[in-house]
Design brief:
Largest sheet: 8 strands, antiparallel
Shape: globular
Structural class: alpha+beta
Radius of gyration: 16 Å
């Protein structure tokens, strides 16, 4: 049964593994198979989420219609892309962390660098956005309307792993938020990284990801 994007991000996230996201920009078409995602919930539910403290101008798209694109700027240099989930008014989104380019590899490599390997073209959330040609101007775009298309898998992915979210600080980067989902043994999945603020705490407790 196809995934309902109006469901919680925790439900939608693993169901997006294997989905194909395409962007047909003026430069050409690039499509990628999604191999790694992270789920983020809404107000008061998830300390790692942009929407944890409520609606702001920055996160307002997260409260919008499911199936739209939520983009944000991070570290002063990178854009990241998310699929908005849950019913309108209830913020929830899935961060697209990595994928395998399945169409438009030459264009993706032109954007990312001529010497970048196929494995690394969209391996990481910022790289994925560059490979697809997504920008902050695409915030709020409909993922089922040109120039975007999201093709959901007909059969749910099997053999995926669930871990803590990578690089998230504070409580949102620790248990019980094991909401990073990635296809197992998939080379395009990005490496897990614990946030520096949590390294000493997790070392003291002997916590594993």
């Amino acid at each position: 049964m196809p995934v309902d994007l109006a469901a919680s991000a925790v439900v939608v996230a693993p169901a997006l593994l294997g989905a194909v996201l395409s962007h047909d920009s003026p430069e050409g078409l690039v499509s990628l198979r999604i191999t790694e995602v992270e789920a983020y919930l809404g107000t008061g539910e998830d300390p790692g989420s942009h929407a944890h403290r409520g609606r702001t101008p920055r996160n307002s798209v997260m409260f919008g219609r499911p199936g739209t694109l939520y983009t944000y700027f991070t570290y002063g240099m990178h854009t990241c892309a998310n699929v908005v989930c849950s019913p309108e008014g209830s913020a929830s989104a899935v961060l697209l962390r990595a994928g395998e380019v399945v169409a438009g590899e030459d264009l993706a490599r032109n954007r990312r660098g001529e010497k970048v390997s196929a494995r690394d073209l969209a391996r990481g959330p910022a790289r994925l956005v560059v490979a697809l040609g997504i920008s902050m101007a695409d915030n709020g775009a409909d993922l089922d309307h040109p120039p975007f298309h999201l093709e959901l898998p007909s059969v749910p992915a099997s053999g995926y792993e669930e871990t803590l979210r990578t690089g998230v600080s504070g409580p949102g980067g620790a248990d019980p938020f094991r909401w990073r989902f990635a296809l197992r043994d998939e080379p395009t999945v990005s490496p897990y990284k614990v946030h520096p603020s949590l390294r000493s705490v997790r070392a003291d407790r002997g916590v594993q990801r």
